[in-house]
Request: fold
Amino acid sequence: MTFSKQVEITDPDQYINDCCIGGDVVLDRLLPVLRARYGNDLQSNQEDWGWFAWFDEGPVKLAVDIFTDDHKNLQFQLLLTSRKPRLILRDIVEDGAELESLRELVVRELADWPVSSLTVQRSTRSTCLRSGAA
Reply:
């Protein structure tokens, strides 16, 4: 999903790269609803590619990855993924009920914020692999 939102950047030096600028503000907006739904046992932080929140729903591993597409105009991209771990082989990336529930929660929270130009589309497996989320 993509959207625009003018957010206040208080410390521009905290960001590793331009793709991280403002992502912390988006993540801070989402964390309360994510914790309310999935519990406090989630990981969130900044990486060199953006910000993330990773958590589980039963055996399914869910992720919200936040990238700043345009740091001057504060245009963001969120990639939501769900993975089912397998014993020996790589995890299976799939679009199941858990991902749909996460998508509905995130879209509702962004709409309530509100953001501009919100678009939601399903990503292909190759998109997930390029982003490092798979």
About this structure: The chain is about 30% helix and 30% strand. Helices lie at 23-38, 97-112, 125-131.
